[in-house]
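thought: user wants a sequence for this fold. calling inverse folding tool.
action: design(structure=
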C-alpha cells in the first residue's frame, strides 16, 4: 500500500511539473455530497467517471473539437477521496489539468475593486451531487497570468503569498498519504459515522470503498528514451529516490522501452546473444561459501540495491539532467515560480 501511495504521489508531482512546462491551466477542486443527492450518487457507480468525462468534453468544445474525441491530449485529472475528521463525511479533492479553459471562463476579479475571488465560473454547477469549489492555481507566469487574469488578494486585501507552483501538489499529496483516512475507509467507520449523522438512514450507505482516481497514463510522461542504450535503461529501472523523486516513473518508462525493443528482436538475435547457462543452485552455494551464511541477507539485498547518482553512467546522468528531474534541478526550479494554491 505504501509503495502504491508513493507511486501515485510521484505521478501527481510529475503531472504538476509537466503542466507548468507545457503552459496548461491547473484548477484545484473540492467536491462534496449533498444529503438529498446521496442516494443518486451511490446508485451511479460511474458518477465520478461521468463528471470528469464531462469536464474533458468542455475542454474539447473550447478547442473546437468533437465531443467523442479523446481528451487525453488536452485534459487530465487526479482525484483523492477523504472522510472528514469531524463526522466522517465523504468528499473528494481533485486537480484538473487543462490545455484550454472551458468556454465562458473569465477572470472572476475583472472589474472588481477587491480582487479576492478565485473560483472558475465555468466549472461551477458541473458537479450534480453537491457543492464544488473549483479554484485557479496561481503562481508567477502561470497560464492564467499569461491570459491576462489579475493577481488575487487574500482576505486582508494583501497579494497572495508566494509559494512554489508545486504547492498544490503537496497539498493534495497529504490526502494520498493520510493513513487515518485510509484506515477509516477500509473499516467503513467513516461511512458509519456519516450515516448516523443523517436524518434519514440510507441502507445503501456505506459499504463502498473509494480509491484514488486519475486519467489513464496520468503523470507518466518523461523525456523520450528511444536513443538510450540498454545499459542505461537498466540503470534507470534501479534508481533510488535520492537520485530523482520520480524514480518509480522512470522505472516504468524504462521497462516499457525495453519491452518495445524486445518485440523487434528476432529469434536469431536472441539465440546469438544467449549467454552461457548458469546453474543457479551452484552459483548460490558458491556465493554462500564465499560470503558466509551470516552475510547472506546483505548479499541478497545487494542484488536489488538502489542506485545513486555516483553509481550510474554518464549517459544516465545526462538523461536525468536533460529531463530536469534530478533532486538538485528540481530544487532550483522551485525557486523560479511563486503563487498561491
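)
observation: tool returned 341 residues.
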Amino acid at each position: 500500500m505504501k509503495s502504491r501511495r508513493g507511486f501515485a504521489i510521484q505521478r501527481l508531482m510529475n503531472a504538476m511539473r509537466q503542466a507548468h512546462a507545457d503552459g496548461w491551466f491547473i484548477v484545484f477542486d473540492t467536491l462534496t455530497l449533498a444529503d438529498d443527492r446521496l442516494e443518486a450518487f451511490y446508485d451511479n457507480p460511474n458518477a465520478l467517471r461521468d463528471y470528469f468525462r464531462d469536464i474533458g468534453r468542455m475542454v474539447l468544445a473550447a478547442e473546437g473539437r468533437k465531443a467523442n474525441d479523446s481528451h487525453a491530449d488536452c485534459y487530465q485529472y487526479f482525484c483523492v477521496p477523504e472522510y472528514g475528521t469531524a463526522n466522517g463525511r465523504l468528499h473528494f479533492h481533485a486537480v484538473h489539468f487543462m490545455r484550454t479553459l472551458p468556454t465562458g471562463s473569465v477572470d472572476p476579479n475583472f472589474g472588481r475593486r477587491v480582487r479576492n475571488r478565485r473560483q472558475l465560473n465555468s466549472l461551477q454547477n458541473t458537479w450534480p451531487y453537491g457543492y464544488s469549489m473549483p479554484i485557479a492555481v496561481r503562481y508567477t507566469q502561470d497560464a492564467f497570468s499569461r491570459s491576462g487574469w489579475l493577481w488575487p488578494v487574500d482576505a486582508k486585501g494583501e497579494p497572495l503569498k508566494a509559494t512554489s507552483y508545486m504547492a498544490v501538489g503537496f497539498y493534495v499529496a497529504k490526502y494520498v498519504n493520510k493513513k487515518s483516512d485510509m484506515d477509516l475507509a477500509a473499516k467503513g467507520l467513516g461511512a458509519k459515522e456519516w450515516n448516523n449523522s443523517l436524518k434519514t438512514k440510507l441502507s445503501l450507505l456505506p459499504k463502498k470503498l473509494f480509491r484514488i482516481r486519475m486519467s489513464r497514463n496520468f503523470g507518466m510522461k518523461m523525456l523520450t528514451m528511444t536513443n538510450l542504450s540498454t545499459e542505461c535503461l537498466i540503470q534507470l529501472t534501479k534508481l533510488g529516490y535520492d537520485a530523482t523523486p520520480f524514480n518509480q516513473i522512470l522505472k516504468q518508462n524504462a521497462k516499457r522501452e525495453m519491452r518495445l525493443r524486445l518485440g523487434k528482436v528476432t529469434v536469431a538475435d536472441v539465440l546469438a546473444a544467449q549467454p552461457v547457462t548458469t546453474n543457479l543452485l551452484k552459483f548460490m552455494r558458491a556465493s554462500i561459501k564465499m560470503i558466509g551464511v551470516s552475510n547472506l541477507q546483505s548479499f541478497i539485498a545487494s542484488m536489488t540495491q538502489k542506485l545513486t547518482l555516483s553509481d550510474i553512467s554518464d549517459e544516465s546522468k545526462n538523461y536525468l539532467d536533460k529531463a530536469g528531474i534530478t533532486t538538485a534541478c528540481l530544487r532550483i526550479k522551485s525557486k523560479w515560480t511563486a503563487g498561491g494554491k
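thought: summarizing for user.
answer: Here is the designed sequence. The chain is about 40% helix and 10% strand.
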